[in-house]
Structure prediction request, 137 residues.
Amino acid sequence: MKHPKANWSQAIVTGLPVIDGQHKELFDMAASFRGEGDQIRVMHTLSRLVEYANTHLKDEETMLAALGYPGLDEHRLHHHEFRRLLRQLHDEARNLTLDQIADRAEDLINGWFYQHILTVDATYVGFVKALSPRPAA
Prediction:
C-alpha cells in the first residue's frame, strides 16, 4: 500500500522522549540514502536501518508489554508488516540502483512509518502517558 511521503515533523511527536528520539533517528537514516555514495555505503546504511528499526520496534513492544497495553497484539501485527517490508527491501537491494534503494527507503520511512506513527502509535500515547511516572515538581 502506497502512503504519501512526509518528513519528520512535530505532527508525529508523541511526547515520549525515548520513542521520539528513535523515530527521529529512523527518519535521519532514511534521509542519508540521498547524495553521493557507493553500493557498499548504501548497503551498510540499509543494514543499519533494518537493525535500528528492529531495535526500536522491540523497545516499543517491550514498553507496551510492561505497561499492559491492551492493543499490543494488534500493534505487533503492524510491526511484523514493517519488518517484512524492510527485509524485502534488504533482500532486493543488490538488484536495485542506488536511487531505487533511496526511493524505497523513503517510501518505507517517510511513507509507511510516518503514517504508522500518526495513526497506530498515536493510539497508545495517552495510555502510556497515563501510566508513566511524573517527574517531581
